[in-house]
Write a structure and sequence with these properties.
It contains 11 helices and 6 strands. It is an alpha/beta fold. Among the domains are: 125 residues, Ribosomal Protein L13p, Chain: A (Alpha-Beta Complex); 68 residues, no CATH class. Helix 4 crosses helix 7. The longest helix has 16 residues.
């Protein structure tokens, strides 16, 4: 009884706070003038394609966002060729600019290690540095988005110990690049290829890493990011805005017009999912299995890790 009394005491307070439901009375007049017509009485059973469009119908297509198109179609975004390296001479100094998004991390680091030690100069010595007036300086842009192939973008681990028992910190490369210590990826790759002596710290002071494609040096040129191919131009979406365009549905593939019979027509199976339309061929012996496995391993090895991958949802 005590529980029931508490419930009845609580219910009036809840009901008083519930918002009333908005209702529409039956005698209210609604306007169905636009969508009550089936179109036959106004436009006839066979409407003219050149006639003006019915009210509410739109034939203007808005541009398709590039990222949305490639993610929705399940196609890897084509990588437009980007500038990767240039050298600028200033007096007796040479400034080397690298784009980390176009050269694999290890190859770029090995090249930087040679240039920063001035091994390509005739006056190179291994026991002392050249003066700053004759030295080589390295500028790395897009250091926050290095080019990683295969599974390195997900599996590469960075470890450091604080010298306290049990304080071994392990972070993968994605966590490192998302933190304030993102420079560690490029600096550790270059530093690991330099001699382990007192000169390494002095070499590293001549390395400048920037997160994006632009750097802060006014006397050096900048790289320009080239965009991927625009799907609107590939699919010719702008042609759909032509008022003289005539759209005919391919409901009768057997009666193809004479001027189009030379084209190869393959009806698409819309009921079968994409991943089941062209399944991987089944090898018939062990040799074929090894060749097939080696081929797909090669594809995984050279797959580019996308740092800026975005997810889109259909609303």
């Amino acid at each position: 009884m005590a529980l029931l009394s508490k419930i009845f005491r609580f219910c009036p307070g809840v009901l008083s706070r519930v918002r009333p439901i908005k209702t529409y009375w039956g005698h209210r007049d609604f306007d169905f003038s636009d969508d009550s017509d089936d179109g036959i009485s106004t436009y006839g059973e066979k409407p003219d394609p050149q006639a003006p469009l019915p009210p509410g119908m739109k034939m203007d297509y808005e541009p398709i966002p590039t990222e949305y198109f490639y993610n929705l179609a399940g196609i890897q975004k084509p990588r437009a060729p980007q500038p990767s390296y240039m050298a600028i001479v200033k007096d007796q100094q040479v400034w080397h600019i690298f784009n980390a998004s176009t050269i694999t991390l290890g190859r770029m680091a090995s090249k930087i290690a040679q240039l920063i030690q001035a091994k390509h100069r005739p006056n190179y010595t291994h026991d002392h540095l050249l003066s700053d007036e004759q030295a080589d300086f390295i500028v790395v842009v897009n250091g926050k988005y290095p080019l990683l192939l295969g599974t390195k973008g997900k599996m590469k681990i960075y470890r450091h110990h604080t010298t306290y028992p049990g304080h071994l910190h392990e972070l993968n490369i994605r966590q490192i690049l998302s933190k304030a210590c993102w420079k560690r990826v490029v600096e550790q790759a270059v530093g690991g290829m330099l001699p382990k002596n007192k000169l390494r710290e002095k070499y590293m002071k001549r390395l400048y890493v920037f997160p994006e494609i632009y750097h802060n040096f006014d006397f050096l040129p900048q790289f320009v990011q080239r965009s991927a191919p625009d799907p609107n131009k590939v699919l010719a979406v702008e042609d759909f805005k032509d008022p003289k365009l005539k759209i005919v549905w391919a409901q009768d593939p057997e009666n193809i017009p004479e001027e189009l019979k030379h084209l190869k027509y393959e009806p698409e199976d819309l009921e079968t999912p994409f991943h089941k339309r062209n399944p991987r061929p089944v090898p018939y012996n062990n040799r074929e299995k090894k060749i097939s496995a080696k081929y797909f391993r090669t594809l995984r090895r050279y797959k580019v890790f996308e740092h800026r991958a975005q997810k889109f949802e259909i609303k």
